[in-house]
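## Example record

The block below lists the input lines for one assembly entry, exactly as stored, with component labels intact.
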Amino acid sequence: MSGRLHPFTLLAVAAALPALAWILPAPAGAAATLAVALGLTLTPGASPGSTGIGSSPGWRPGSVVFRAALLTAAPFWLFLLLLHDVPTTIATGLRITTMVASIGWVVAALPPARLVEAMVAAGWSATAAYLFAATLSAVPVLKSRAQRIVEAQRCRGLSPRGGVANRLRALGAVALPLVLSALHEVDERALALETRGLVPGVHRTPLEPPPDRVAERVARWGLAALCAVALVWRLA
Amino acid sequence: MTRVALEHVSFWYPATSAPALEDVSLEVVGGELVALVGRVGAGASTLLLVAGDLAPRVVGGRLEGTVRFEGSDRAGKDGGRRIVLPSPWTQLSGMAFTVWDEVAFGPANLGWPRGEIARHVEHALALLEITGLNSRDPATLSGGELQRVILAGILAMNPAVLLCDEPTAELDPAGAQAVWRLLSALAREGKAVLVATSDLDALPDVADRVVWLERGRVAATGTAALLAGDAACAAGLGTTVAGVWRAAELAAPFPATVAAAVRRWR
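Predicted structure tokens for the full assembly:
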């Protein structure tokens, strides 16, 4: 389902759920938003490779996102229980879990390339869209470079296994070359982008802009209105 | 007529007192392939950046002399001056998650209509023989595959002047030969092609002219026969065949290629 929605709609839902979780009275309001968020994590994510821009490095089957959300939220519940009474722990825990599940869902469901296409089609500058996409795509690039550095360091006798001290030492030997090489390539990357036409003020052609249906635009405004009404109701 | 010309150009990188280029004059016109050769640090890469209007505009530094470019330098049918840098990994756009989108990155930035972008992308993919990779994630490609993708991305922008810095560095011998054939064909189509390379053995078959750079200055200019000269061989800039011929103390002039050596032996 989420794979067919416009990227802005996905972002609107992911923003509205945590907002409503904090605005609506706990525990009922937060429980309701959490139920919706967890339900979304179980829906099929974006389908990888369905179009030229449809694949996402962050794509995961729904159950993985569901489990990841619960596992990520678990430590928060523990610390809340140590610091607060049970009702406060439940209220805040439900809200935090809603936030975690919403973010996890949108990261899994929204291919960055589709969001970039939507941003360019909506009139955002290509350079702003680049900042967003490059940040997301940097994760797999850095991961693969880190793997190469690990292999190179292993050839020099470094072992990333063993006790905590050993692992920390290995982490330093990997992190430093990783950061330095990333900084070193900034200049060359700037030249490459310049020669490929990514300059300030460029009017980039969106390659495959996702359709933005009227119903979705109405739904987004509806979500914003719902949050505003809920806030006014709570403050009244 | 496409033409890029450097007239008495000297260039200093930021915070350096020694020039990377010193009094360099060079002209490349549409229809010819010119090769820059020299030791590491001779200034070939810098010359490409200057010719491509990236130095000092993007790189910084100081330029003396004149760089002239004739031909379209704006978005449109003609993609202007474009450079292929030596390391393919740092040239990934970061905005594409398939090879097709990576190649389309440049044309999309030029604001071309989608149909025209698709046509140029398909043509560039076919030229580089990588159509089969079009749905792959660029981050998962080998160095050689990525090198071809980056070159395709530049060709898809339909540059009038193509500047390549070690375009065959990541390629196997067959891939390198294919790229040289392609660059030669592009020159014959009317593009001005300027290549900095250490793949000296390929040049006699493809280069119209060879420019030998030494410490930022032009040491010699000529046909690819320059690479079979005694001076070039002594400097380590001769072709393998010429080097072997010279080492064997056989009679000059040295043959530049295997075919020329075979003819001499017969």
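The first strand of chain B starts at residue 3 and ends at 12. The radius of gyration of chain B is 19 Å.
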